[in-house]
């Protein structure tokens, strides 16, 4: 059962994912909150908009949290991270470094770079990863909204299929 607080922040993460899509990049959004469910930081994918392969939504939120993460390390505070898509291996690393004790995501990433469940299943960094509560796909309606955004992304000119086609057309053109 999803709590009102979880729903509010998952919806905020979805708004960030929508904004990312408008910016012609992967529709993924993330939100970081503290133990009292105060908003700490928001983030969204900027891979295409910033031409930065490491600019994932979760990393963006962690970067935007800035000194809050360091303050948390000193004061023994912990965070919840919400993401609209299952974190990839890179973001899983970022999560392990950032005092995050709970991760909630809307859609499992079976086709792409879903990494959090695989990392846990592999039993690597087990002591650290076992301290994190993982909540996958807690709400079918919100999951559906992320799936819609992913479908819209497939139509986007920055989708890798369209970029490859564009590059091929360019290569075939004789000037
Ligand atoms: Zn990632």
The number of distinct helices, counting runs of at least 4 residues, comes to 8
Number of strands: 5
Mean pLDDT value: 94
Each distinct ligand: zinc ion
Provide the spatial order of strands within the biggest beta sheet: 2-1-3-4-5
**How much helical structure, as a percent, in the residues?**
40-55%
Secondary-structure-based class equals alpha/beta
Low-confidence stretches: none
Main sheet overview: 5 strands, mixed
How much of the polypeptide forms β-strand, as a percent range?
15-25%
One letter per element, helices H and strands E, the order comes to HEEHHEHEHHEHH
Report the principal-axis shape: globular
**Gyration radius, rounded:** 17 Å
Give a concise summary:
By secondary structure, the chain is α/β, with parallel strands linked by helices. It has eight helices and five strands, in the order αββααβαβααβαα.
What does this structure look like?
- By secondary structure, the protein is an alpha/beta fold.
- The chain has helices at 4-22, 57-65, 67-75, 89-96, 116-122, 126-129, 140-155, 160-172, and strands at residues 29-34, 39-44, 79-83, 100-105, 133-136.
- α1 (4-22) runs parallel beside α7.
- The protein is globular and about 65 Å long.
- Bound molecules: zinc ion.
């Amino acid at each position: 059962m999803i709590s009102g607080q979880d729903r509010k922040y998952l919806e905020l993460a979805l708004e960030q994912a929508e904004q990312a899509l408008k910016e012609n990049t992967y529709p993924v959004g993330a939100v970081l909150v503290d133990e009292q469910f105060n908003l700490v930081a928001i983030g969204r994918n900027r891979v295409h908009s910033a031409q930065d392969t490491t600019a994932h939504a979760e990393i963006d939120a962690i970067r935007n949290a800035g000194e809050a993460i360091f303050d948390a390390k000193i004061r023994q505070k912990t965070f919840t991270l919400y993401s609209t898509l299952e974190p990839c291996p890179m973001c899983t690393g970022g999560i392990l470094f950032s005092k995050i004790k709970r991760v909630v995501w809307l859609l499992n990433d079976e086709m792409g770079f879903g990494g959090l469940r695989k990392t846990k299943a592999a039993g690597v960094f087990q002591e650290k990863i076992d301290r994190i509560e993982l909540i996958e796909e807690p709400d079918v309606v919100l999951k559906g909204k992320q799936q819609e955004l992913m479908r819209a992304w497939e139509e986007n000119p920055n989708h890798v299929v369209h970029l490859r086609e564009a590059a091929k057309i360019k290569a075939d053109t004789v000037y």
